[in-house]
Amino acid sequence: MLSYNFKYELKQLLRARWIQLLSVVLLVLFGFSAFNGIQKVEKRKLDIAAAQEEVKENDAMMLKLLDSVERGLEVSVPRWTIPSSPMAVGNYHPRVAAMEPQPMAFIATGQADLFTHYVKPTVYGDDFSLNFTEMTSPVQLLFGSFDLAFVVVFLLPLLIIAFSYNVLSSEKESGSLRLLAAQPIGIQNWVLQKLGLRFFWLAVLVIIALTLVFLVLGINPFTQARVYFGLLGLVLTYMLFWFALAFLVNLWVGSSAKNAVALLGLWVVFVLLVPSVLNQFGNTLYPMPSRTLMINEMRSLKAEVTERQDEILDNYLRDHPEFALNDTTQQRGFWHRYMASQKLIKEELSPVVNGYEEQLQRQQDWIGRFKWISPAIIAQESLNQIAGTATKDYEGFRKQVVNFSGTWREHFMPFLYNNQDFSQADYDALPRFTYQKETALQFGGLGILLVVSLVLFATGIFGYKKLSGAGILDQA
């Protein structure tokens, strides 16, 4: 019976032009979305390259000025920007702390619409006030980006629904179901075979379409074999879930119209409603602290610290004798007092800043505990992780930049407190930022989707048999 179904199903799909149509649609959707994702990644690379080129040009000018100063020549630049001052170097010649896109970044925009990929930390300013956001079109944020993740999570289930909603009902409505009554097979097994064959052909088309799109766009997927096969496994498992839903609906609902409405309703629930509800519950249970109160507290603390800067500086030098001021000059300028006060400000404000981070982490943990309710959340998070644009990736980048900002500031402390000029010989020792991806690829979502899909299939097979015990003839 399976071999007969295989031949009959293939002829039927070819005659109805389903395979031809799906081939074209998948190639167009995957091709355009992958191209769109690559364009976004290229723009990010160009932005980072432009920032690095600007730093390179500024460094060349800085070295020329240092050469002139060391040779005793007069320079025509404002006094406070002369690079022989270590604070001028730390403030006007920062390094680029960039988060380079991962090889598969074009797959999912993820959090890239909300966070920038590079920052320039300076010695002036607070670590917690570093700007990690970028101006983004509110229209784009509303509708999202048309990337491969959008096609897989939102559009591919709609194609599956159109491909499988009437597997049983069309046979009933055409009257051909009675002809199958002579076959020794239960109705649930017959529907399972029909949907299994449709899943097989659609999976073949998806694999071919994805591979062709990658190769045409100049991306060799086999150089990242583990990531690519993980991507294919995720897509196929996500497809399996929607075929499992179609299996249940075909058995238990009835007419083609009702099947279509039921499956579209489930699409709305799992893809749109559940993620929104979980997000709203997270915001309600773990609300973010008032930003206005945080800003007011920061201003009050800074005003208080400013009044006590001389005292703070004395205490700081007492704790750091290696930074003792030159006894012959006893220079106590703005930068001496400012740099000493920054550590105190950071310590005093850490509870406020940590409150924001803890509430955000609680919201993310809340969604993580219940993400199994919606396969769309699992698929989206997994695709973001493969692309390197997940929330954890940007959180790791932020922490690395904050650490680098501290390293950058600490590098100039000995120069400042020992009244030592910055020279050309000190240029090569300037700290450099290198982004390290901290989150390893995890495909735990595949296991969750696979288990849920198998449970749905088992429910359809054994639950339907237990409820009706009917054969094909009884349903016709």
Task: Give a description of the structure.
About 70% of the residues lie in helices and about 0% in strands. With about 475 residues, it is mostly helical. It has one domain. The two termini are about 20 Å apart. The relative contact order is 0.14. The model is unreliable at about 140 and about 470-475 (pLDDT under 50).
Shape: elongated
Rg from Cα? 31 Å
Q: What structural category characterises the helix and strand content?
A: mainly alpha
Let me know the average pLDDT. 82
Q: β content, as a range?
A: under 5%
Largest sheet: 2 strands, antiparallel
Low-pLDDT regions:
138-142, 469-475
Number of domains: 1
**What is the H/E string?**
HHHEEHHHHHHHHHHHHHH
Question: Roughly what percent helix?
Answer: 55-70%
First-residue to last-residue Cα separation: 19 Å
Number of strands: 2
Side by side, the strands of the main sheet go: 1-2
Count of discrete alpha- or pi-helical segments spanning 4 or more residues: 17
Features:
elongated; two-stranded antiparallel ribbon; 476 residues; 17 helices; 1% strand
